[in-house]
Amino acid sequence: MIAKFFVLFAMCWAATWAAQELKVEKVYVPEVCDVKSKKGDQLTMHYTGTLDNGNKFDSSLDRDTPFTFQLGVGQVIRGWDEGLLDMCVTEKRKLTIPPQLGYGERGAGNVIPGGATLHFEVELINISDSPPNANVFKEIDSDSDNQLSREEVSEYLRKQMVEAEQTGAGESEEMKKMLADHDKLVEEIFQHEDKDKNGFISHDEFSGPKHDEL
Ligand SMILES: [Ca+2]
Ligand SMILES: [Ca+2]
Questions:
Q1: Ligand 2 being an ion, which residues bring their Cβ within 5 A of it?
Q2: Active site residue 58
Q3: 12 or 171: whose pLDDT is higher?
Q4: Which of 94, 160, 167, 211 is the most exposed place for a label (fewest CB within 10 A)?
Q5: E.C. number, please (predicted)?
Q6: Do residues 38 and 85 make contact, with C-beta atoms less than 8 angstroms apart?
Q7: How far is the CA of 149 from the centre of ligand 2 (A)?
Q8: Sequence-ordered strand ranges (E) for the chain
Q9: 107, 130 in Cβ contact below 8 A?
Q10: Catalytic residue check, 69
Q11: Quick one: DSSP state of residue 36?
Q12: Which of 41, 81, 103, 137 does the annotation list as catalytic?
């Protein structure tokens, strides 16, 4: 009886999962496109994100500053890592991202509720090669045992935030919120990265930049 219930439950779950796929619509593609975005590239984008009800939760246009990140290495949500591949400079896309490729059942902060489908209008401004010698893993692993502990990750994040605050990169309100949510952020990183749940992120598990020569 219990086994039967479990099979049914698993089937329903799989069906919901399969139905929620990433949708990528090309709104504008330039005639000339020599270079297309690929895994490891640094992309500079403008984006506007909305929820199903049309409420905008974030836009780089409001800040008048495009957003730069490395594609395909887990710096951004999976919907972006997968939905922004093979893109031309000046190309515009609409992404519809199901929760499991976005912020999942937990949501993010006060702005994105759990289980939310995300809609993004994006424009690719620039593609550049990945930064040299980006070895974030080594930087975080302060005792060099090839494992990242919660303390090491926590310390690294704290340093990053202080640096960002000093250079005025983040708005101070945002920064305060991030510092307040600091422990939660560490937990979220471990949820995502510590695949075998042994309390440490190994070199293999780590999805960020970890190579000496790129
Ligand atoms: Ca370590
Ligand atoms: Ca682990």
A1: 194, 196, 198, 200
A2: yes
A3: 171
A4: 167
A5: 5.2.1.8
A6: yes
A7: 9
A8: 23-28, 42-50, 56-59, 67-70, 92-97, 118-128, 147-148, 201-202
A9: no
A10: no
A11: B
A12: 103
